[in-house]
Amino acid sequence: RKQTYIVHTAKSQIPSSFTSHQEWYHTTLDSVLEAPVEQGVSRIIYTYSTVLHGFSARLTPAEAESLRGKHGVLAVLPEKVYHLHTTRTPEFLGLNDPNGLLPLSGNGGDVIIGVLDTGVWPESKSYNDDGFGPVPTSWKGECTTGKNFDASSCNRKLIGAQFFSAGYEAALGPIVEGKESRSPRDDDGHGTHTSTTAGGSVVNDASLFGYAFGNARGMAPRARIATYKVCWIGGCFSSDILRAMDKAIVDGVNVLSLSIGGGVSEYYRDSVAIGAFAATEHGVFVSCSAGNAGPASSSLSNVAPWIMTVGAGTIDRDFPAYAVLGNGKNFSGVSLYSGKNLPDTATIPLIYAANASNSTSGNLCFQGTLVPEKVAGKIVLCDRGVTARVQKGAVVKAAGGAGMILANLEANGEELVADAHLLPAVGVGQKNGDAVRDYVLSDPHPMATIVIAGTKVGIEPSPVVAAFSSRGPNSITPGILKPDLIAPGVNILAGWSGSVGPTGLASDDRRVDFNIISGTSMSCPHVSGLAALLKVAHPDWSPSAIKSALMTTAYSSYKDGNPLLDVATKRPSTPFDHGAGHVDPQKALDPGLIYDLTTEDYLGFLCGLGYYPDEIALVARRNFTCSGSKITASNLNYPSFVALFDTAIEGRRGRVSAGQAAQSQSIRLTRTVTNVGSAASSYKVTVSAPEPVKAVVEPDVLSFTAKGETKSYTVSLTSSSLPSGTSKFGYLEWSDGQHLVRSPIAFTWT
């Protein structure tokens, strides 16, 4: 059975008998095919020249194995399927400051943000190009025509729109045009939402059914946007993703935003990591979503150190609603329902879905599980889980229900995500859900109603880490702390597709210009847009410098000094939850010091992991000699620290046992900082380490006489043993009285 494989080749090993790499690829592929192809037909799906050297093709396992032995072929890897990670935020992030990042960066200037997602709805007001100058001369991309999409769909704001479906169609067959557009057009909404979050133009009086009313704008409202449609109904296929990244780099994007993920794998097998490495090497900042698999530990995606991995937090806006019960008790929750309201008093019969179903899973309100005769005219209590929240409401409505109370179970705890339900509905946390369930099961005649309360701002505390936001530690490289930081990702208002309703359900015939949704898919483009602003303000900064500025200025405590909270536990969050903290763009504009990295450093890091030369070549696209270049993960010049005690050598291969736990172990971590602040400055260090760790920093003062000057320091950590699996946290700060350069430290005993 054929499947798609990504074939990596050594560019320099092309035989002299071929005049082009394409000719070499076709001839090599033809030599392993078990059956001839028709004349003029090629099994090659794409060729790649930037993110990797090689091609993708449909092969049988036997053909793939034969190809692995051919001259110049480095690897033949099976394709991977990735999936989507799915107004007020500029004010919440402080971007309204007249002396801050937004005005000082010209609102994004002519920087180009490339977004790999589900495409674009070009009619959205967020792509308005009024006041924009000519398209930057650096732009080499295009506006691809297709179904319901032509060159006129682009403008001076939306300067490029392309689609990549060959890999998807090779795997699943031709696109069904009645279900999705074989063009850059967004039939899903996700891509329009992410791209307008990153760089949407200012739109006055924006809202979703009156919720979150105000002026909507992206993080970099004057930035140019280029969209690359790689995600379809069946998923996002790595052959398409690689080709889109290949094209985006050549097109001239400055920032790449990918709100997609597909689990984790070694970097040389991870298509997004491979493409992101090439982008970084070309000076392109790459931001990716951390994933929505939280609060489970080690649930992160996109963990390569050259990627900015973004988790999600809340903002200070909410959409309150209440479940009012017949016993006089009210339970708070959230809702974006817009329509005819229920009575203010609890006069509607209430029933638990499990008691209105003939199915053992009736409590979850699956399609077809509710008995209409038991549900008609009543409010139904459904338990959250397995199927989409809005789908449960649609099931209740189809069965004749008057409303729905959606109760969280243990998996979601107290996390509340607002939805534009099709009927009066409120989502409540686990504690309130348990109380409602106790009432409906104990009262002989339970009654209720649902009260919708609109939009409320100034919610405290905020931000808090979203329960769905994926968590560390880093399962691929424990010595690199991930996520890097968190950004707004809960109940975010941004542009939407006109092809689909706000719930995304086929039964939802409502159409909106803006939608409110949640996920690390939403937090990622916030950081992408902020990186675009920094790129304009500091055009000489590398992608690693921009990442460092965003990380070392992030905050991990509220203004009152208390630590950020995790909504999943109601306890303080840790760097495994929030990374360096919540992004603070105003401070990132002037970080004082940065931790810079080159692609050569990253290759030395791969050497330190014990990667073989041919594996490194898959990432580097060239031969790289590790002799003298090995950098352990903990000593990569990263803006955060991980100290691994009582563990084996960090290499993935050839590990050496550390033996019995010593009474005292020592670790030395080295970093180099670059002065990007005032020419003459002196920074003093503060380090916080938990018991039983003793920390010493040498030197403890760094004095600079020029901008761009670098200084190195060493952190010596000594600790007695603790039980395996123990993790504790601390921090290291450099301050000159004006800047505070802060790095989290994770201490882990294994």
From TrEMBL:
Pfam family, one: fn3_6
Location(s), subcellular: Secreted
UniProt keyword Protease, yes or no: yes
InterPro entries (alphabetical): PA_domain (IPR003137), Peptidase_S8/S53_dom (IPR000209), Peptidase_S8/S53_dom_sf (IPR036852), Peptidase_S8_Ser-AS (IPR023828), Peptidase_S8_subtilisin-rel (IPR015500), Peptidases_S8_3 (IPR034197), S8pro/Inhibitor_I9 (IPR010259), S8pro/Inhibitor_I9_sf (IPR037045)
Protein name stated in the entry: Subtilisin-like protease
Domain annotation Peptidase S8/S53: ranges: 109-563
Family under the similarity heading: Belongs to the peptidase S8 family.
GO molecular function: serine-type endopeptidase activity
Spans annotated as Disordered: 178-199
Entry keyword Nucleotidyltransferase: no
Main location: secreted
